[in-house]
Amino acid sequence: MKQPAIFALSLLATAVLAACGGEAETEARSPWGGDATRVVTAEVELQPLVDEIQALGTAQANESVQIQSRVSSHVETIYFEEGQRVTAGDLLLELENNEIVAGLALAEASLSESRSLYERNLSLSSTQAISVSNLEELLAEVQVNEAQVQAAQARLGNTRIRAPFDGRIGLRRVSPGTFVNSSTVITTLDDISVIKLDFSVPETFLTAVSEGMAIRAHSIVYPDRVFEGTVMSINTRLDPVSRAVQVRALLPNDDEALKPGMFMTVDLQRDRGDVLVAPEQAIVPEGSSQFVFVVVDGVVERRPVVLGRRIPGFVVIAEGLVPGESIITEGTGKVRDGSQVESVNQSAATLPRPPNEG
Fold first, then answer.
1. Is residue 246 part of a domain?
2. Percent of the chain whose predicted confidence (pLDDT) is above 70
3. Domain boundary among 245, 271, 297
4. Is 232 among the domain residues?
5. Distances (CA, A) of 123 to 196, 204, 328
6. Which residue has the higher pLDDT, 8 or 109?
7. Phi, psi values for residue 156, rounded to 5°
8. Domain of 130?
9. Count of C-beta atoms within a 10 Å radius of residue 197
10. Which whole number is the average pLDDT over 62-66?
11. Are 203 and 153 contained in the same domain?
């Protein structure tokens, strides 16, 4: 009677072990009950790659000057108002010039006398009543007096200060009666109808800038406005410390919204053409080598690749892939070369256009 019971228990144990073994074998094949491992893939494509940087610059007036006197004297009359727009040649200020006027009158009188004397003796030269050497001395005296008159006229002209170019007057720093000399700043004059924007560009972006190219600049003063201009010149030398080159652009400023000294940013772009880009998570490093898993007809192929530059979230594939191939982006740790896989969301996982590098 004991043998049948033992046999029954043996059969029961065999059945339980068989059931457990079958379940474990099923899980080993696939957690979804199939032979293929489910992964997420993406189709690599050629995509345009554009580098973008923001260069920092300072606005400057197209023309700028401090109005100063060439002579030392007192201010007699001021003809300008602060903030006034003036044109080239407008009289801005007149200095006291009584002494200079008197000196000019004296020089003119001496010139008139010497010229009259020379002309009288010149008429006698034909009769040889005066020697050639004496006549030459009289002519030299005339020339000296002419030079003295010109010098006095120049000194008189320097007492009348005029605008050297079209522009807008700054703050007045003198008053009538103020004694001024060559170091005294009377006011400032700026031509801001056009703004010069000087900014630095890194050495790596040197080929992205050229004379005549269009730029777009921004100011924190006008956050919703874009100022468009043109590169006028590029410095011939790079700064040996910052490894950057100085660039100057011209920005039209008809409404005079921009002022000299304002801080501005410039957006620069460099088109690198079409490149093959893959998500970073698709790259499998192994030592110094890099691999991706390519899916061809549901079969995994472990493919070595050569990487180019990195972009946040993406990497350029320099060698190893061709456009249109599908690579595994999620599930790389569950597959190996020759594995059977089932692709999930292949169409939805197509690479988006990579963001421009800032």
1. yes
2. 85
3. 271
4. yes
5. 63, 79, 111
6. 109
7. -65, -40
8. 97-158
9. 24
10. 95
11. no
Rounded Cα–Cα distance for residues 192 and 148 (Å) = 40
In this structure, the answer to whether residues 146 and 199 fall within a common structural domain is: no
pLDDT tens-digit readout, 194-220:
999 999 998 888 877 889 888 899 999
| Statement to judge: residues 57 and 103 lie in one domain | no
Contact 32, 38 (CB under 8 A): yes
Beta strands in the chain (DSSP E): 37-43, 45-68, 73-78, 85-86, 91-95, 160-162, 167-169, 179-180, 185-202, 214-219, 222-238, 244-252, 263-279, 284-286, 289-296, 299-311, 314-319, 326-330, 341-344
Structural domain contains residue 328: no
CATH of the domain at 222: 2.40.30.170
Is residue 287 one of the residues assigned to a domain?
no
Of 236, 271, 306, the domain-final residue: 271
Which DSSP category does 210 fall into?
-
Q: Residues 100-158: pLDDT tens digits?
A: 999 999 999 999 998 888 887 777 766 666 777 788 888 899 999 999 999 999 999 99
Phi first, then psi, for residue 9 (nearest 5°) are -65, -35
State the virtual CA torsion across 278, 284, 290, 296 in degrees, nearest 10.
-60
Does residue 195 contact residue 251 with C-beta atoms inside 8 Å? yes
Asked if 153 and 201 sit in the same domain, the reply is no
Distance CA(87)–CA(265), nearest Å, equals 32
Judge residue 178's burial from the number of C-beta atoms within 10 Å of its C-beta, 0-12 exposed, 13-18 middle, 19 or more buried: middle
SS3 308: strand
Q: What is the CATH number of the domain that holds 126?
A: 1.10.287.470
Query: Phi first, then psi: what are they for 224, rounded to 5°?
Result: -100, 10
CA nearest 227: which of 201, 255, 208, 207? 255
Of the candidates 324, 287, 325, the one whose C-alpha atom is nearest the C-alpha of residue 303 is 325
Tally of domains within the chain: 2
